[in-house]
Amino acid sequence: MTGHVEARAALLLLADGRLPAGGHAHSGGVEAAVLDGSITGLRDLAEFLRGRLATSGLLAASFAAAVCRSVRTAGPATELAADVLAVFEAEVDARTPSPAQRAASRAQGRTLMRVARAAWAVPAHPAAPHHCVALGIVAAAAGLEPRDAALAAAHASVNGPATAAVRLLGLDPLAVTGVLAEIAAEVDRIAAAADTASALRAPERLPAGSAPQLDLLAERHRTAEVRMFTS
Amino acid sequence: MHLEHDRPLGGGGAPAASGGAGPRWQSPPGTPAGPAPTDRALRVGVGGPVGSGKTALVAALCRALAGRIRLGVVTNDIYTTEDADFLRSAGVLDPGRIRAVETGCCPHTAIRDDITANLDAVEDLESDLGRLDLILVESGGDNLTATFSYGLVDRQIFVIDVAGGDKVPRKGGPGVAGSDLLVVNKTDLAPLVGADLAVMARDAAAMRGGRADRPVLFTSLRSDAGASDVADWVLAQLPSPARPQ
Question: Could you name the domain of life of the organism this protein comes from (chain B)?
Answer without folding.
Answer: Bacteria
